[in-house]
Design a protein that fits this description.
By secondary structure, the protein is of the alpha/beta class. 38% of the residues lie in helices and 23% in strands. The chain contains four helices and seven strands. A five-stranded mixed β-sheet has the order 3-2-1-6-7. Strands 4-5 form a two-stranded antiparallel sheet. The longest helix has 27 residues. It is globular, with a radius of gyration of 15 Å. 34% of the residues are buried. The C terminus is likely disordered.
Amino acid sequence: MQALGSYHGGKMLFLGLGTGFGSAMIVNGIVEPMELGHLPYKKGTYEDYVGRRGLERYGKKKWRRHVTDVVARLIAVLEPDDTVIGSSNIQNLNALPPGSRAGDNDNAFRGGFRLWERAPAHGRVHSN
């Protein structure tokens, strides 16, 4: 919901730094949930390094470096127009990774409203 509430058009990548590592891509208003956190990275997965476990295991300084690296890799390969970093652990970043902007938990409410506004009469939301 935070991704949809943060969307301003075009191709947006949303990355959630929470308990795990959430991800979604929105292209021309179509929301595609993704499981990028399960992709291999170093000796584990992205989620192992930038989720809460990574923060606890590596400490803030190394965790921040991993976040910056992971975000840069995903921006390079997915080429979004806009990248939003959200969820609870964003507060542990001193600075946002280059090419990204901060999400806000309040945007989840906006996303919920947008979802209801876009729902067709038969109650099913279209996504690819």
